[in-house]
Amino acid sequence: MRNSRHQRQRAAEVVDAGHHKGLKHVDRTEAQFELLFSAYLLAHRGEQGPAAEALAAAGATGNDYPMLAKMRAVAEAEKARAAGKPADAIALLTPTLDGSELYITHAALMEAYAANKDTAAALKEARWLAAHRGRAYAEFTGPQQILMPLNVSLSTLALLNAAEYSLALGNKADANQSLAELRRAWAKPEQIPSLATRIKTLQTAL
After folding, report:
1. Which H or E element spans position 32?
2. Is the four-CA dihedral 129, 131, 137, 142 of positive or negative sign?
3. Which of 35, 97, 134, 200 is deepest in the core (most CB within 10 A)?
4. Please, what are the domains in the chain?
5. What single DSSP character describes residue 3?
6. What's the maximum distance between 2 C-alpha atoms anywhere in the chain?
7. Considering the entire predicted model, what is its pTM?
8. Which contiguous run of DSSP H or E holds residue 205?
9. CA geometry: angle at 88 spanning 86 and 89, to 5°?
10. 177-185 contacts: CB < 8 A, separation 24 or more?
């Protein structure tokens, strides 16, 4: 995740741009998308106040650009999950699953299910993310493809999530398989301390 100070600063810049009288409609739409993405990232870090400000600054999404509404649903759902309301997050996201939802929708839904103690549903979303890696690269993800780096990392990390959820459900074989797939997709994930801890915990249990 990006640095939270950077996200707040970027959100403020986009707000200023959105208020500029000479800004073209397409630029305003891009500004809204960036704000909504900022809101998601801030909420993910637990920064509820700045996330709410970014959501408010984005304003109404309307019906002309469906991706804006989809990104808003993801941001609002992440804010709800981070506030301890995973059921509300699930309720916001599931109606958007029509095949055209953003890739990141499934990541937010995975975490919401996990927080709601529905491990089987969380595992299903983790497997979806891992199985649709091509979509992480190919889908339209806003101005300058701002979601793509996160989407791609999520598609790999989903394998670690799948291993953890499989183990929690008592399926060591699937957990081992997902961990092996993670190593094939990412040569040395242990180089990242937070991942090293999770992998060590898995290996100890397996």
Report:
1. helix 25-44
2. negative
3. 35
4. 4-205 (1.25.40)
5. -
6. 60
7. 0.87
8. helix 193-205
9. 60
10. 178/130, 179/203, 179/206, 181/130, 182/156, 185/156, 185/159
